[in-house]
Amino acid sequence: MNTLNPGDAATLDVSVVVPVYGGTRALAELCERVGASMRAAERSYEIVLVDDHGPDDAWSEISRIAAYDGRVKGVRLSRNFGQHAATVCGIGQSSGEWIVTMDDDLEHPPESITSLLARGTAATPIVYGVFPARTHSRFRNLSSEAMRWSLTRAFPDMNSNYTSYRAIHRPIALELLHFGLNRPYIDGMLSWITSSVATVEVSHGERRHGESAYTLSKLIAHALNIFV
Fold first, then answer.
1. Residues 193 and 175 sit within 8 Å (Cβ to Cβ)
2. Fewer Cβ in 10 A, N or C end of the chain?
3. Global pTM?
């Protein structure tokens, strides 16, 4: 694992962790919008971009962004480990009191980070950004809902409104590192740690670059891995 701009102790307000797989062309805009939102809210922050060895050359772009923005930290995994493992790795490299996880494709609007943080407290350490309407295709929405239905029955304590757009208080986020799973499932793990969860409605942004990495076969493989 390679790391650019390594941080120190937990002295920042927010760490934004982004697993990168196929969303390289959106990274510059994502970082700019995250930075503008955090500066407007007067929050100290960092952005942790985790290169999960996708189909494009993400590391070159991450290195370029990190070279001119010291708030951006680049982490390069040795191979493709999957979204959840890459996210857990990014959490392990973060320094913020609150850790926000989000996708790399701008479907999670960076401007909504402050809404998630405003809802979170020490007593409510997990806040999910949920979408009243999604911009995915009808097939993707149906397959995602089928998987959600199955997983909430496999994990009865899990918040049914889970998404990968989350704000997690640091003490809870660091608990994820102790599971030591090769193929972790973050939302199931969080449901074992605490039931104190809140949700905030946010808009669902449009993907303008590339296509989703979650094909039907990958969704099925992901679900089977979780169940096993």
1. yes
2. C
3. 0.84
